[in-house]
Amino acid sequence: MNRSELIISIAQQIGLNKQQADKALSAMTTSIIDAVKAGKDAQLVGFGTFSASKREQREGRNPRTREKMILPCQAS
């Protein structure tokens, strides 16, 4: 299911038009993203838990040249 199909499904299930369903979905995803960016977990019972994780610096390879390189720390 893609975003458009999800919007149509939401609209049909709760009697909204597509614009209202799109706004509701956007508000939900924005709220989840903002919570995770703030370092919090977003737990939706029956749906999932969203959280950021930190990846430490590690050794990797350039896929084109196969040259070894150091990949920096990053949040994902």
Whole-Å distance between the termini? 24 Å
Q: Give the overall average pLDDT.
A: 95
The appropriate CATH architecture is Irregular
How many strands, what sense, and barrel or not for the largest sheet? Answer: 2 strands, antiparallel
Q: Strand tally, please?
A: 6
- CATH superfamily name? IHF-like DNA-binding proteins
Total helical elements: 2
Structural class: alpha+beta
| Residue runs with pLDDT of under 50 for 5 or more positions | none
Q: What global shape is seen?
A: elongated
SSE layout and pairing:
Layout (H helix, E strand, L loop, with lengths): L2 H12 L3 H20 L4 E3 L3 E3 L3 E2 L2 E4 L6 E4 L2 E2 L1
How would you describe the overall organization of this protein?
- This protein has helices spanning 3-14, 18-37; strands at 42-44, 48-50, 54-55, 58-61, 68-71, 74-75.
- The strands form three sheets. A two-stranded antiparallel sheet has the order 1-2.
- The chain is elongated and about 55 Å long.
- It is an alpha+beta fold and 76 residues long.
- Helix content is 42%, strand content 24%.
- It has one domain (3-75): IHF-like DNA-binding proteins (HU Protein, Chain A), CATH 4.10.520.
